[in-house]
Amino acid sequence: MLIIGLIGSLSSGKHLIADILHEQYDFVILEYKDFKKKKDHTAKECLSKVKETWPKNVVIVGIDSLKAMTEIRDNPQFFPIAIEGPLILRFQRQKHPIIHSLEMFVQLDDYLMFGLSSNEQYIENMLENLHLDSKDISPLNKCMDSCDLRLINDTNDRRNLEKKLADLLSVNSKDQQSTTTTKLLCPNWDQYFLMLAWITASQLV
User: Where are the chain's structural domains?
Assistant: First the structure.
């Protein structure tokens, strides 16, 4: 079982990547925002849902809390991937009806990425319309810096993105628990038993 977390800037292509993982690799898609109702237990609720999907692979879309990422890392098979892309390309992709200009997009992007705001009232209105709570958000740059892998989505060509994702999933990733390397979608026996131990231990709590 592999758990991929997608952490990325505004309109970087997180949902498209999740769709590709679902369609081509049979991943189960979980939306991180769906677990935010449990403000102090978001990561715990998310991981509980992950356990229900065993042994299927899971992709968690839109993690935006450094605290939650730290807690989810308790799982030995969690691999967070930072998704980035050129600003102008991301603006062209965005479909939010309340974002009418590049300037508005940049202001919101700066806030989500770095916590910077030149117009607090505007940002609060934007967050409310996007159903986001500023208290639950960590600057995305901090979340992305802690990711194991990084994918630059600098294209609107889906086939190109599919190839990039396939290349990323086939890289050798060093297992934190041993000196062996393994391809992400082909865990070794050590990783398999670590996952079983994690699920069993969590059920005893």
Answer: 3-203
Q: Which long-range contacts link 42-48 to residues 24+ away (Cβ below 8 Å)?
A: 42/68, 42/136, 43/67, 43/68, 43/71, 43/72, 44/71, 46/72, 47/71, 47/72, 47/74, 47/75, 47/202
Interhelix angle for 102-114 vs 120-129, to 10°?
Answer: 90
pTM for this one?
Answer: 0.81
For 3-203, CATH gives: 3.40.50.300
Instruction: Look up residue 73 and give its two tokens.
Output: 């890392």
| Residue ranges of the chain with per-residue pLDDT less than 50 | 173-182, 189, 192-193, 195-196, 198-199, 204-205
- What are the distances in angstroms from CA 57 to CA 29, 43, 77, 127, 160? 9, 17, 10, 31, 23
Q: Is-contact 43 72, C-beta < 8 A? A: yes
